[in-house]
Design a protein that fits this description.
The relative contact order is 0.10. The termini are far apart. The chain contains 13 helices and 9 strands. Bound molecules: fe (ii) ion.
Length: 400
């Protein structure tokens, strides 16, 4: 049986089923292993891990610990109890924004790829030249965020570093808008988000794209990318304090277990806390070399689970409000046993989005696509699904 326990209850002879942290954030070869001594427990603690999942069939048990199913049920309940705040009506229909958003997304990836190559060669970042891109991304999200956001979930392994930067930027704009920040502040946040990982241009490709776990020295080198980002941005004219906080604090954690400065609680800026939430969300929901990403809804549940320690819970709630409990572009199952892609969030209703029905799960066949507004009650959403489990290519089902 899989159970969740605090790290303080961990003893030799227990079998770790899941370290319960972003797999890129630890130097173990695997997420599951037998605990064999105090040194290993100390190492787990040093990573900032507070709770782990153990397999009681393969090691010692803890009698009163909750099972994985109980934990999941509680998290689902917490997710569904998040209520929307305020209305943010769409300015244009999805169909009108789709092509523009695709163009902006492609352009953003080209720009950030070129920028990181230039930085590696010693060039200085010209903030002014990024203004049109930031304005375009903000405008697109303000007009209808459902056009750009499905694109950020799709990444190619070899392009992860660039595409992640663009994704974090788009998600941060959406998050900041949910928090009613001013357009000027949102622009500064967007700039910091786009450049948050620019320090990775100083980390060797062999480490950045290593297939498999990093050893301790490589892990330390990887973590250094934040220090490089800070140095590069300090030398960049036009970087505001807000943009700097977004980049400098994206690996810090609310309980002080992050890096590089182990900042804790109030010592963290609001913008840094936002970027740490968004960075983790995008990282764990992305496919990377030899590692499959989580479904968006599962990644949001992980954020809620970790918000007990690593993130400020109210801020995680705001992020979930911003992108939805079932984010746009994700696959869901309906009560009718049909699978559907989430097309648009309905304002003021996080549990009943608009979806496009595409597949029959029982008959295992595609259906003629049908648009359904789940607010009307003609079917019911029962949970999220994996595209890969059904051999469905999410790229084919982007909004057209
Ligand atoms: Fe990073």
């Amino acid at each position: 049986m899989i159970k969740k326990i605090p790290v303080s209850d961990l003893v030799s002879g227990m079998y770790i089923h899941d370290l319960n942290c972003d797999w890129m954030e630890h130097p173990f070869l695997t997420n599951s292993f037998l605990v064999d001594g105090k040194a290993r427990i100390a190492k787990i603690r040093s990573l900032g891990v507070r709770e782990v999942y153990i397999d009681t069939d393969r090691g010692l048990d803890v009698a009163n610990a909750p099972t994985e199913e109980e934990v999941q049920a509680e998290l689902q309940q917490r997710m569904e109890s998040i209520t929307p705040c305020g209305e943010r009506p769409r300015q244009v229909a999805l169909a009108e924004e789709t092509q523009r958003a695709q163009h902006i997304h492609t352009e953003a990836n080209h720009i950030i790829r070129r920028l990181m190559t230039d930085v590696r060669l010693g060039a200085q970042i010209e903030v002014d030249r990024m203004e049109p891109l930031l304005e375009n991304m903000m405008d697109s999200i303000f007009r209808n965020q459902n056009a750009l956001l499905p694109l950020v979930g799709l990444k190619r392994h070899d392009n992860y570093t660039f595409e992640h930067s663009v994704s974090v930027c788009a998600l941060m704009v959406t998050f900041a808008r949910e928090l009613d920040m001013s357009r000027q502040t949102i622009k500064e946040i967007a700039l910091g988000a786009l450049l948050h990982d620019v320090g990775k241009s100083m980390v060797p490709d062999a480490i950045l794209n290593k297939p498999g776990s990093l050893n301790a020295a490589e892990f330390a080198q990887m973590q250094e990318h934040v220090v490089f980002s800070i140095q590069i941005l300090q030398e960049t004219p036009g970087i505001t304090a807000t943009a700097m906080q977004v980049a400098a604090q994206h690996h810090e954690r609310y309980d002080g277990s992050g890096y590089p400065h182990r900042l804790k609680g109030e010592a963290l800026s609001l913008y840094g806390q936002m970027s740490s939430i968004v960075d983790v969300y995008d990282a764990i929901s992305s496919d990377r070399v030899y590692h499959k990403g989580m479904q968006p809804s599962s990644a949001l549940k992980k954020l809620l689970e970790w918000s007990n320690h690593h993130f400020e819970p109210k801020l995680v709630h705001s992020f979930i409000r911003a992108i939805g409990i079932y984010p746009t572009g994700s696959l869901v199952r309906l009560e009718s046993n049909r699978l559907a892609v989430v097309r648009e969030q309905n304002e003021g209703d996080l549990l009943h989005p608009q979806v496009e029905v595409i597949y029959h799960a029982a008959q295992q066949c595609y259906l003629t696509p049908e648009h359904i507004d789940l607010r009307r009650g003609n079917d019911r959403l029962v949970g999220h699904e994996e595209f890969s489990k059904w051999n469905i290519d999410p790229k084919v089902w982007l909004p057209a």
